[in-house]
Amino acid sequence: DRAQKVMIDIAKEELNNYDVIISDYRMDAIDGVLINKFLKSKSIITLFILISSFDYAEIKKHIDTLQSKEDALEEDTDEYLRTIFSE
Question: What are the extents of the domains in the chain?
């Protein structure tokens, strides 16, 4: 509903104030983590507590997880291409 959308927009705006340089793809994943926690609680107070407690360690943990998934996917793709072209 409209109130929920406004609160999510506020959350995203607050998140954008963090000095973390990462791609949109990764930021979306991190936004998702925060917003999902917020939606489960359905409370604007929880939203701001989450934002104020959101630290670089948590961001880095999610980046590292995504990076290792990306790396694995890249390796699989490279291996697949080598297989095709070696035949």
Answer: 2-86
* Mean pLDDT, each 10-residue run in order, the chain (87 residues): 71 59 47 59 54 57 68 74 73
CB-based burial, 37-64: b 16+ in 10 Å, e otherwise: ebeeeeeeeebeebbeebeeeebeebbe
Residue labelled with tokens 């990764």: 26
d(CA 38, CA 30): 13
pTM of the model: 0.28
Q: Look-up: residue for tokens 């104020």? A: 52
Q: What letter represents residue 49's amino acid?
A: I
